[in-house]
Amino acid sequence: MVERLSKRFGRKLALDDVSLVIEPGEIVALIGASGSGKSTLIRHVAGLERGTGEGGSIAVFGRSLLSGGRLSREARSIRRHVGVVFQQFNLVGRLPVLTNVLVGVLGRIPGWRGTLGWFNAAEKAGAMQALARVGIAETARQRSSTLSGGQQQRAAIARALVQGAKLLLADEPIASLDPASAKRVMETLVEINRTDGITVMVSLHQVEYARRYCPRTIALRDGVVAYDGPSTALTPAFLRDLYGEASEELILPEGDFVDPPPPRPVRRPLAEPALATI
């Protein structure tokens, strides 16, 4: 839950009294033109930024992450269960893909093991399983720099799975990808949401992907929530009313979207239920 969150950078008000609630197990798109506040909001929910002012608060998994512009004492513990996927992948290019994915376990192993890069057999097996789930197990021994952009993004998602994330925040994960790679990344996010019950918030610069993959969309405009509702409402006419000329950067040119396959049945794990309201 985000309540009355504001953030100022100098004279720029990046977030202006933003409030929203995301239910456990949802997959939600966050859209907006450049400078609308999408990345800033995601960084706050991830615990990477502090709000401006004293009224804003963020609760994740029912626990306070941020209040009165300050991170709570529980912030570090909460962040262990929040996975973040960035537009630029954040992989170490000279290291093998498997090692990059194993970074996801650092929050729950002794610091000296992480420093030495000493991972046990069970941890390596878990990382291989995560790579298999996102469809790139064969790349495990390759240097990350040799992967395509779409493969690197899927490796970043595998890292979040190894982390044991219950909330996955993806900040424009397909912005620099070709349509086929973008489709595969979005399918991967949908699959882990449906199969594992992981809550997903994904910021998108292309509205068509929000319409096709996310039942709900939150639209930001100049740091304010301008729309929060069904993605099916995001027609070109509606977007023009909402964003004016800026709507053009949110609509894909005809032919640039690759149709996804029919949705698969939802399967939920029998283990502990998905935690948390954001």
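(the above was protein one; protein two follows)
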Amino acid sequence: MIKRQDLRIRDPFILVDNENKCYYMYGTTDLEDHCLDARNTFTVYKSYDLESFDDGKVVVDGNKLGFWADRDFWAPEVHFYNGKYYLFGSCIAEGKCRCTQIYVCDTTDGEFKPVSSKARTPENWVCLDGTFYCENGVPYMVFSREWIEVKDGQMWAVQLTDDLSDTVGEPFKLFNASEAKDVTEFGGIEGAYITDGPFMYRENGKLRMLWSSFNEGRYVVLIAESDSIKGKWTHLGSQYDFCGGHGMIFTDFNGKRMISLHSPNTADFERAHFFEF
């Protein structure tokens, strides 16, 4: 078993198994030492209390897939939809843009396979952190368009086909990072603002998005709000005063709504943390 405090992980995503009373944690774990570079696997860790986890099981192995991407397998998250489990994860290869690929499996911890040979973010855009959202029965992917391409990072969405194997129509922009008052320039670079880690949920009749960026060098959790995915987005500010982010929300077995995130945002020291939300 691995204790939570001993497992280096970024972008921890919790899938709750109510039938078996256990939790599955996915995240960026195949990391190189002392940096944010990653290799080419995604692993799931099983727990009954969110403090002790099993040794992990690889659910996406880039070496076995013969897959076009070969590194930086980042930020996996798994969603149950139409009787199957879909994993959304970022990846990259030499000469290719960073993207989000979608994989599918019949179980939470089986061998996930790509739903398509192509990424679901635009081929010539630099993107990451795709997440799943369904509105009025219509599936969408929400994703970040990276600051290294557009400088002022952006959030976009695109409609997906019912089997999530392709897109429908053109992507549409939700907002720019600089629109949020709690976001400041990244790394001292003039005009550079980060969008990172979107996660969609509904509350008080509103659609809300958790996302992350930087405030005076500190990694932060932010909330944006809209009436619908194609509506006008407003920004509600940052949530915590420590350096941590890339959050998502789940309900634990005590009925408490929880946020999962990693903190600190420092290579080698990142750990999963869970707080009532």
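Reviewer note on protein two: Residues 62-65 form the longest helix (4 residues).
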